[in-house]
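Need tokens for this chain, all 498 residues.
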Amino acid sequence: MTPGHGSTVDGVLRRSARRTPARVAVEYGERSWTYEELDDAVSRAARVLLDQGLERGDRVGAYGHNSDAYLIAFLACARAGLVHVPVNQNLTGEDLAYIVGQSGTTLVLADPDLAGRLPEGVRTVPLRDADESLLARLATAAPYDGPEPRSEDLVQLLYTSGTTALPKGAMMTHRALVHEYLSAITACDLSAGDRPVHSLPLYHSAQMHVFLLPYLAVGATNIILDAPDGDRLFDLIEQGRADSLFAPPTVWIGLSNRPDFATRDLGGLRKAYYGASIMPVPVLERLRERLPKLAFYNCFGQSEIGPLATVLAPDEHKGRMDSCGRTVLFVDARVVDENGKDVPDGTPGEIVYKSPQLCEGYWDKPEETEAAFRDGWFHSGDLAVRDAHGYFTIVDRVKDVINSGGVLVASRQVEDALYTHDAVAEVAVIGLPDERWIEAVTAVVVPRGEVTEAELLDHVREKLAHFKAPKRVLFVDELPRNASGKILKRELRDRFAD
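Here are the structure tokens for all 498 residues:
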């Protein structure tokens, strides 16, 4: 075995523990952990896992809610040389069984209220809230003192969100994630003095790998919440305990729609990060108007790259509010046509990546891996435009572009036009089969107050060419989305296809 070079996920915590052992690393509920205590807990949890008969390289599922135990379990897998498989806690039935089975998971660490959903015969260990839980066993476990993992070892299978097909397990190495952590620290201006709150699901790569682990790397004090509860978030900000927050656009929209958003003292919030899906420009403008001193960062990427690829910094928003920024430290990107050739700046094409942050491919899916990694570049499936200054703007997912009467319509542009109407709380624009138009541009709207289809159609036609305006407007109570905030347009297309 080659010597350890420290480029490992668990090494990130170990270094912080040696540098600032007494500083509080994590707070969750009534519990808090200093960096030294957290590092010790991770070593003991690694021993607990290996005592279950696991061997290096075995896959260990994580099926739980946000908690300190969830974080400790991930880092313990990393330290023990195991492969962590985070599972969306909202999955049930066939979707849950698919990931557990396809990954070849040997053992699942599960919260007790979720364990009953797992397929019959799957070995489980409770994460917390039980006498035999991982957290409870730390007091009697000896610290792990075995060999360090290698930087090239797999540490996690990050399953894609599956908005268009069955999810695929992106094979992430220690080295890839450590590169991504440094990219996140530099591009997002993360520092030990920040007071971040982490409220999005930790199974999702953005909250875990763009924020929580990089913040542990710099030595910040991190608050973990069960969920992005507006009351709790606003209280923490007013109390001066939180000044940094990441949330997808759907959560920012929900916070900005709260009646007390205009009256609470939110001036202590210094850094606001958004990503995971496209932020409507009108929503961002409303947020900036209400909190003019708040620094907004647009973070863009996907699971396969760890997941951060580009960032639009606060001082870069002016004049390019719809941009996702420039590539981060360890990412190179191009915009290409269907033949893989570079397109001129200002021309839409697929954005492709080359980076040490990239996954090694998809777990047990050689054909999908070969299709995604071509000519030395990873093909993202995102339609983008690059300008002469290196800024990228995501036009749409390639599969979400609508072919209406032979003319391609980007759904994002139509959505932004609809968001400028006061009665539109949320909207998703999709293409539905149509004999005349091939695909009819269709807006699925969550209304705020009274509004008619005709009013919204007239509103869009005042802003866009008529061929881009929706042929129909469908009203719903809510839009389907996954736990990371991405709207599931595939579900909408299936629901309204008839």
